[in-house]
Amino acid sequence: MAADKPIKKVVLAYSGGLDTSIILKWLQTEYGAEVVTFTADLGQGEEIEPARAKALAAGVKPENIFIEDVREEFVRDFVFPMFRANTVYEGQYLLGTSIARPLIAKRQIEIARMTGADAVSHGATGKGNDQVRFELGYYALEPDIHVIAPWREWDFKSREALLDFAEKHQIKITKDKRGEAPFSVDANLLHSSSEGKVLEDPAVEAPEFVHMRTLSPEDAPDKATVITIDFEKGDAIAIDGEALSPAALLTRLNQLGHDNGVGRLDLVENRFVGMKSRGVYETPGGTILLAAHRGIESITLDRGAAHLKDELMPRYAELIYNGFWFSPEREMLQAAIDHSQAHVSGQVRVKLYKGNVTVIGRSSPYSLYDQELVTFEEGKVAYDQRDAAGFIKLNALRLRGTAKRDRRGR
């Protein structure tokens, strides 16, 4: 579907893989547009520099090829703010794919402004959540940008038609791309996500070869690994006393999680577009980080603040999952969450063993835990156990009234 006015230049989120290489050529042939490519290193574990040669071979000007290492920005400005809220979607999913999309969208819009592009494009299909996440990000940052979503526009009806287009335009097709892939993968420094094909039947256990970032818990060492994680204002800053940058810290946690079989999740989730999907996710470092962050919060957050955070979190998680990172309501929630972290500093000791993460110690200069107050031994005069009687009677007042009424009714 052509735009109302001709598209002159488009910024494409480009991985260098077959699908986005086809999209690049399709944009050139269908729209006659000059294409700018943006390839982000989010810690997906694959070499991204070859994308430059592929873009050049497709006729993209050297000055229109952007390849950037955004791992530090990703963890610092997206992953860490999300983890301050202990964010999980539908009780389990740590949102590894969801949280990467706003960063890609943000950079595409910034590059569009730098290069004078009048459109942006992505490779997400018309069935998934990513199309929503990308496009809500685009429109929130540049309201009048034109968005091209090839999977919703082009006439290709089969994978064979896509391969024919690739061959016609001399796009290299590696041998493994000629057959159907057994499942699709999305990965970044926070997680890997596997969906489709061999994973589509939710009644069937995922084959072991699907897991790429973790040892099987059965194969993990028989000896536990114990580490310490230091926090400052809600963010992890050191492991075993060694100060690390956000990306380096998550990388270290990923390796520790991998070695101990931590972070596997087999989930059927509710997509924003209305269907259920089954995915196999691996979030080794994030799983450790979540447990440790809750550990340090347990001694530094007031009960009311902690419980309110837990009430807000599902709404916050849903906003991120659905693509509303740049919405006013997400920013409002973030301000409240960040305010709660002012004293969330200290150290947590964590034990990793065969897929399990257990907090075994926590300490903080801002701790609200008072050992003298909670001890069963002779405690502080500040707490008189006899005071509990009045407290209980006041809280029982309405329950007793209801019980008396119900008794009269019988």
Stretches where pLDDT falls below 50 for ≥5 residues? none
Please tell me the overall pLDDT: 94
Instruction: Report the principal-axis shape.
Output: elongated
Strand content: 15-25%
| CATH homologous superfamily title of the largest domain | Argininosuccinate synthetase, chain A, domain 2
Q: What is the tally of beta strands?
A: 14
In summary, what is this structure?
By secondary structure, the chain is α/β, with parallel strands linked by helices.
Written description of the protein model:
By secondary structure, the chain is of the alpha/beta class. The protein has two domains: 9-70 and 98-177, HUPs (Rossmann fold, 3-Layer(aba) Sandwich); 190-363, Argininosuccinate synthetase, chain A, domain 2 (Alpha-Beta Complex), CATH 3.90.1260.10. The chain has 13 helices and 14 strands. Strands 3-2-1-4-5 form a five-stranded parallel beta sheet, with helices on both faces. A five-stranded antiparallel beta sheet has the order 10-9-8-13-14. A four-stranded antiparallel beta sheet has the order 6-7-12-11, with no helix packed on it. Helix 8 (246-259) crosses helix 9 and helix 10 (303-322) runs antiparallel to helix 11. The radius of gyration is 25 Å and the shape is elongated. The chain starts with 8 loop residues before the first strand and ends with a helix. The model has no long low-confidence stretch (mean pLDDT 94).
